[in-house]
């Protein structure tokens, strides 16, 4: 049995339902070592026959048997392998891949062999040497003459050392000299023990073969033996040492995709930029959200100690509550400070015994006080007790108040006394007075002369005039008022326990009565954080809409890329690449575009974030753009997912392309 046997090959093309028979029953046998020319008129079906022999066409009747094994045209993988291992394909239009150089074009076929990297490169150089192009390896196809390009195509066809070389009008576009050279190389290939099948309409070209088969009206009509093979050559050649092949490894798809991206860099860089802008906007908004949240927390923590809770006595009497709230907000109060409910020692003890509480500091506060310095009277909306939550760092002069001493507010008292020499107030004696109601509801005046210990600039911005607890107690007692505390500052071990302790305090009951009223700053903080979080998410989502545009850009780019690279798809399929390889090629290019966009977006976000921070730091004293590692990871993930989704349809189109039509593409 001959190495290649075609039996009863019939093929029709259909226009609508009408069949146009092209091949009408071809029988042909060819041995290894033979150079057979199939001579026929233009349009006679030569290319159609070559596509069947080379495993590109699957829709025909008849059988193709190679080395005793009939090809099953329904099995994709078997056909891919057949093209990879058995067939070397040379066409009239060279079919070189324009974004790969000469060496890379040859290596493309070798990538599907099991040779080591070094062996593949060595073999590619040897093949180029054989076709006389050793010194052209680094050139791109567009830098070569037609004859040179065809010789590269021959080198590539021989790369996997296939037993059958199929040449479709290999000299159709060449001048006489180049034609002679190519035919000489084909003769040599046959002499080396391979089978060469060359279709041509040129009688002169056909004369280079051992045997000429005439294709007339869809059938082999006539045979001409020009150079009979020696009898030992017509015997099936002994098993040749072939190069083992493998499906294309994933990394090769990536490398090829990268080379294409590099080749079309100007176009791709615009796509990368467009995609990066969308990703960058999302990243910047997220960073800005983090920064603003951090800034608000920072500001609030500066003003209020998140580990402390201010506790008042709870009153269910409407009037009392009103008074109590008036005491908290001095602007609402009248000129006589309301009577404040006090804490008993047992109540303080109850607070101390709460879980997570590490300290309870009693305090007394009064509203609507007056402070007289010499002949000047100043109003102090609140006179309160200095507690450990008031930061010592807020003292701008002097020290915290000792017994019978006071610290005065810088803006509302000291600087009104003297805009420039306000520090000199320290050490002076002032008279503090306020009116309040005693337990019986009668007005009482509390008054005392105190020495100024320090000047304070409250971080909260509110006016702060404070004495120590003992002095507050002594002043109240002297006026016949209770010396029990009117508020208590509860300290918790860690900020996170703040809210739980606040809830516990508010739920403490004696005889079914709520005892205390506490407010947590962390509740407020959490609420602010939630609002900022929502605002950030909304802004990032709006910016995210541009990601849809980015995805569309990648889809359009990939579709254009698939259309522009149809020929390449055909070439890769003819070399034995599977549909999966083609899909991977386009998917990996999209993934690279996505990855690069994420890199660029990160760079832009960091760069612009740094510039913004530089400007805004002067105003806020805080870095307002904070891009976290999680945002970067998220952006990379997002970019990859978008790119992958965008590549699905175009890559599928590429993978499903009919290799014959793809090869015929311009
Ligand atoms: N996809 C197709 N659909 C319909 N008809 C087709 C198709 N491909 C080829 N044909 C027709 O089949 C016939 C044989 O085409 P084929 O390309 O095999 O001829 P050829 O001998 O290789 O011609 P040439 O030497 O000019 O390349 C032609 O008449 C052509 O118009």
Automatic annotation (TrEMBL):
Record-given protein name: ATP-binding cassette domain-containing protein
Superkingdom of origin organism: Bacteria
A Pfam family assignment: MacB_PCD
Membrane topology, record value: Multi-pass membrane protein
Annotated localization: Cell inner membrane
CDD domains assigned: ABC_MJ0796_LolCDE_FtsE
Domain ABC transporter: 4-242
Residue intervals passing through the bilayer: 267-288, 531-559, 590-612, 632-651
Family: Belongs to the ABC transporter superfamily. Macrolide exporter (TC 3.A.1.122) family.
GO biological process: amino acid transport
SMART domains reported in the protein's UniProt record: AAA
Keyword Transcription regulation attached: no
A GO term, aspect molecular function: ATP hydrolysis activity
Species annotation: Lactiplantibacillus garii
Matches recorded under Gene3D superfamilies: P-loop containing nucleotide triphosphate hydrolases (3.40.50.300)
Nucleotidyltransferase found in the keyword field: no
InterPro entries: AAA+_ATPase, ABC3_permease_C, ABC_transporter-like_ATP-bd, ABC_transporter-like_CS, ABC_transpr_LolD-like, MacB-like_ATP-bd, MacB_PCD, P-loop_NTPase
Keyword terms of this UniProt record: Amino-acid transport, ATP-binding, Cell inner membrane, Cell membrane, Membrane, Nucleotide-binding, Transmembrane, Transmembrane helix, Transport
Record's GO cellular component terms: membrane protein complex; plasma membrane
């Amino acid at each position: 049995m001959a190495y290649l046997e075609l039996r009863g090959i019939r093929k029709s093309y259909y226009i609508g339902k009408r069949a146009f028979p092209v091949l009408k029953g071809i029988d042909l046998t060819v041995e290894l070592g033979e150079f057979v020319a199939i001579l026929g008129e233009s349009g006679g079906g030569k290319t159609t026959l070559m596509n069947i022999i080379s495993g590109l066409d699957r829709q025909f009747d008849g059988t193709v048997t190679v080395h005793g094994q009939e090809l099953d045209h329904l099995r994709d993988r078997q056909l891919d392998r057949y093209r990879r291992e058995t067939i070397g394909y040379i066409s009239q239009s060279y079919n070189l891949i324009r974004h790969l150089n000469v060496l890379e074009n040859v290596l493309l076929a070798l990538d599907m062999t099991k040779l080591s990297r070094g062996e593949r490169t060595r073999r590619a150089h040897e093949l180029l040497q054989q076709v006389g192009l050793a010194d052209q390896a680094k050139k791109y196809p567009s830098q070569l003459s037609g004859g040179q390009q065809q010789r590269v195509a021959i080198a590539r066809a021989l790369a996997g050392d296939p037993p059958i070389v199929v040449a479709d009008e290999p000299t159709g576009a060449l001048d006489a000299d180049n034609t002679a050279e190519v035919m000489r190389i084909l003769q040599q290939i046959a002499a080396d023990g391979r089978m060469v099948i060359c279709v041509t309409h040129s009688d002169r070209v056909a004369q280079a073969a051992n045997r000429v088969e005439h294709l007339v009206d869809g059938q082999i009509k006539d045979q001409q033996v020009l150079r009979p093979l020696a009898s030992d050559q017509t015997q099936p050649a002994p098993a040749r040492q072939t190069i083992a092949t493998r499906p294309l490894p994933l990394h090769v798809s990536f490398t090829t995709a990268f080379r294409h991206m590099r080749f079309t860099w100007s176009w791709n860089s615009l796509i990368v930029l467009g995609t990066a802008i969308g990703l960058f906007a999302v990243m910047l908004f997220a960073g800005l959200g983090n920064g603003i949240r951090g800034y608000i927390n920072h500001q609030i923590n500066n003003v209020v100690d998140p580990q402390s809770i201010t506790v008042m006595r709870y009153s269910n009497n409407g009037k009392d509550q009103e008074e109590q709230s008036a005491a908290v907000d001095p602007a609402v109060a009248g000129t006589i400070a309301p009577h404040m409910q006090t804490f008993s020692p047992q109540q303080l003890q109850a607070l101390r015994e709460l879980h997570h509480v590490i300290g309870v500091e009693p305090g007394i506060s009064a509203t609507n006080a007056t402070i007289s310095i010499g002949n000047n009277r100043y109003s102090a909306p609140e006179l309160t007790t200095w507690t450990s939550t008031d930061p010592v760092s807020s003292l701008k002069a002097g020290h915290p108040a000792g017994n019978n001493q006071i610290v005065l507010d810088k803006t509302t008292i000291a600087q009104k006394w003297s805009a420039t020499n306000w520090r000199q107030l320290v050490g002076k004696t002032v008279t503090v007075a306020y009116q309040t109601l005693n337990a019986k509801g009668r007005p009482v005046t509390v008054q005392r002369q105190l020495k100024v210990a320090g000047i304070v600039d409250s971080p909260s911005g509110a006016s702060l005039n404070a004495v120590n607890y003992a002095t507050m107690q002594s002043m109240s007692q002297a006026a016949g008022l209770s010396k029990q505390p009117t508020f208590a500052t509860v300290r918790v071990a860690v900020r996170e326990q703040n809210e739980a302790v606040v809830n516990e305090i508010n739920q403490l009951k004696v005889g079914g009565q709520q005892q205390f009223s506490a407010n947590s700053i962390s509740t407020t903080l959490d609420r602010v954080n939630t609002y900022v979080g929502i605002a950030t998410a909304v802004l990032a989502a709006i910016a995210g809409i541009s990601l849809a545009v980015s995805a569309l850009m990648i889809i359009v780019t990939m579709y254009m890329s698939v259309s522009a690279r149809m020929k390449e798809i055909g070439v890769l399929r003819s070399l034995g690449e599977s549909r999966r390889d083609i899909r991977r090629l386009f998917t990996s290019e999209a993934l690279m575009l996505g990855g690069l966009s994420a890199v660029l977006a990160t760079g832009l976000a960091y760069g612009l974030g740094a510039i913004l921070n530089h400007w805004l730091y002067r105003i806020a004293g805080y870095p307002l753009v904070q891009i976290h590692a999680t945002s970067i990871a998220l952006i990379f993930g997002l970019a990859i997912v978008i790119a992958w989704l965008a590549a699905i349809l175009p890559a599928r189109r590429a993978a499903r392309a009919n290799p014959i039509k793809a090869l015929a593409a311009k």
